[in-house]
């Protein structure tokens, strides 16, 4: 299958430091390549994920500039239409409306809280898009808002880098950026 994956222009893929979406997409690219798929990643030019890389910005656009992501995604759609892809996996909320410009199906992974005001604004215009939730709670919230959630697929990780333990430790690890939608206000009292 010929798969197009649209990443953000705010971090390279994989990121040097924090970049949750870009790290997950690197794992996804590697997994799809292992399964024999032809994968093209639309990301920044300094990305190094092992696939065909198409870029419109040489380096991450910092500070965040929404117009850069719109330009990147629109150019990606043009490229996709000209190169006979089978499916598009979009990962940038601001680009979900570009589904109507594509000649092939697009699925959009929800990486953030769909009930935030900024997300509701874009999603309210494209409730009929094909969405994938990354958790059961996110799927519940998205469906309650009327989004067409076609599946729930957890974020990918490289299990070779993590050793499970059957013994309880005396600590709690919090992974994620320190933002309200990541739940630090829940983790702190638990500690």
From TrEMBL:
Record-linked InterPro entries: Glyco_trans_4-like_N
Positions of the Glycosyltransferase subfamily 4-like N-terminal domain: 18-160
Pfam families found in the cross-reference section: Glyco_transf_4
Protein name, as recorded: Glycosyltransferase subfamily 4-like N-terminal domain-containing protein
